[in-house]
TrEMBL record:
This protein's record includes keyword Signal: no
An example Gene Ontology biological process: fatty acid metabolic process
Free-text function comment from the UniProt entry: May play a role in fatty acid biosynthesis and insulin sensitivity.
Name of the protein in question: Enoyl-CoA hydratase domain-containing protein 3, mitochondrial
Keyword entries, A-Z: Fatty acid metabolism, Lipid metabolism, Transit peptide
GO molecular function, one term: hydro-lyase activity
Pfam families, per the entry: ECH_1
Family designation: Belongs to the enoyl-CoA hydratase/isomerase family.
Native organism: Inmirania thermothiophila
Amino acid sequence: MGHENEAAAAEPILLREVRDGVATLTLNRPRARNALSTALMAALQEAVDACAADEAVRVVVIAANGPAFCAGHDLREMRARPERAFYEALFAQCSRLMTSLVRLPKPVIARVHGIATAAGCQLVASCDLAVASTEARFATPGVHIGLFCSTPMVALSRNVGRKQAMEMLLTGEMVDAERARQMGLVNRVVAPERLDEAVAELAATLCAKSPLTLRIGKEAFYRQLEMPLEEAYAYAGRVMTENMLARDAAEGIDAFLEKRRPVWQGR
């Protein structure tokens, strides 16, 4: 994975646009195949944190410029600093970023137009939803270079079945977009020319929902996954009770019974 030349280096490594409640965060290291350098991860972390605090943002889309979506960690940067402390800090930074996407109180959609490998595959798996072009490809290929994709494994194994995750991790082989959909890594696969339209449609659908309800539901979804069955039901029951007492739930139910559109207040 190469570094940008001087002209490209003048470009921001992350682009941010907010339109109609949708914040699009675009990885912008095309010559480096959007490798997750420490600088790019820091920029993405800052943008994700800003989206969490911005009431105008209802949905976040992670996109990328250039031929690849994200080719994983920046191997040149990693080899330039062969130090335990650097590696520990690097993987902690990446883990915090991926966890932030899961904890973000708003839905996150990955817009995947090209390859998503290693930590790039982890990035897709860490998003709540993913829409992929038929040209997208996915892999955890660390095994080819003697570096097992252990941190990407955490997100991957929480999205696909064990046998499928192990096959990707042990072989490092590329998986096409349709196979990734069948495995549960992505939600929808569309022709390249329809990718923006499909992402926009999904984002608009989410923006039409109560932001409070989506926040409650997203948090509950991930928390209950880690619980035993009885504990999960007890927790979900408490969540639904609190949700039922919210203004938006009363409005939504009344609107349904009265056959009208609900007016969400986010409380």
